[in-house]
Structures are given as C-alpha cells and as structure tokens.
Amino acid sequence: MNMKEEKIQTLHPLPGKTNKSISLKKYKIIKDNIIAILHDFEPTHSELMEKLYTNVKDDFEGGVQWYGETVKLDLEARKIIERTGSKPEKYRLI
How confident is the model at residue 2 (pLDDT cuts 50, 70, 90)? Predict the structure, then answer.
C-alpha cells in the first residue's frame, strides 16, 4: 500500500518569501529537536545547527542542515522562536 507522504507548507519570516513544502514527519522531528535544544540554552546559529545534527544524524534521512534551516525559518515565522538581536545573534523560544 503506497501512502502518499504528508507534507507541510513551511513559512518564511520575511514577507513575500515562500518557503518549502516538506515531509510532515521530518518537519516534526526537526521542530521537536530545535525546541528541545532551545529549552536548554540560547545557541548561535552554528551551535543550533551543530547540536541539531548531533541529535538527529543517526536516524534522519536527508540533509539535516537544510531541513534545520527550513524548519528554523518556519518556527520564526510562526513566532515560536526568535532571534535575540545580540552579537553574535542567538535563538530562543518565545
């Protein structure tokens, strides 16, 4: 039985930009991991992506950085996470 994979249309924080339609399953894995990471500390972009990669690399099929970036932008657009505006810029849960 070939079930068509469920997709989610991700959002982009910048008006007028469209983001990717991606696998809902992969979206949830990355989203849950990003939120879990941000529960513990406020990482820079590279810290966030490194930790995300470490957390999911063994079980995740696809480019972790690419999905990480796509989902991170979506979470910003949905006002779930935000940039701190500091230098270097960091991320935190809203």
Answer: low
